[in-house]
Amino acid sequence: MDSYLCGRKLQIPDNCRSLSNLLIDEIDIKGSHFCFKNFDSNDVIYSYPEFIQLIYKMCSLLHSRGIKPRDYVILQFESREMFVITFWACILSGIIPVIIEVPNEWQQSNSKLDKLMAVTQLLPQYHIICEEGLVVQLNALFNNSLCINVSNYSRFTSDFQVYTGIDKNDTALLLFTSGSTGIPKAGQLSHLNLISATMGIIQKN
Fold this sequence. Notes:
This protein is of the alpha/beta class. It is built from six helices and nine strands; from the N terminus they run βαββαβαβαβαβββα. It has helices at 19-25, 48-64, 80-93, 111-122, 135-141, 191-204; strands spanning 2-6, 33-37, 44-47, 72-76, 96-99, 127-130, 147-149, 171-176, 186-190. The strands form three sheets. The protein has a four-stranded parallel β-sheet, sandwiched between helices. A three-stranded antiparallel β-sheet has the order 1-2-3. A two-stranded antiparallel ribbon has the order 8-9. Helix 2 packs across helix 3. The chain is globular, with a radius of gyration of 17 Å.
């Protein structure tokens, strides 16, 4: 499944200090929508306001499970739609997402599984956020209390207050190297890093 945003060219205000500001400032886009392209079924299309409401519902779920601003959460999703919604819910909640590819094989050692296991040893504290289809595999590797299935997020309220204690230099995202030559190394990307990168892409296009 691929995803893309259709609508006018994204405008980034000069005073934008976080990804949360960027997303919320764009809520009033008229006629814009997100489209998730499924290769085996119909495309899934949301208007921009509809998509924001889904993100708020996910924020409410994460808050209900005791996940706090600046907590680390490892994202494990095969669904691109669930990944994008959860990623932005983390951003709006001040939570730091850690993006790691889902292993192709859970029984035998492989690069993706080894990386996942190594990262859990490097983080001081963390939660693992996943969808229904990965619960059994992840619970077999980790304590049940660490894995949070968020597939039922749509049942939660969209009445969520966006976390406002974010500075442009705060960590927005944590990435890790493959670890093929040893222990994976963390790369912290700030809100300013990602906003600047986005502005660069817009200028090129």
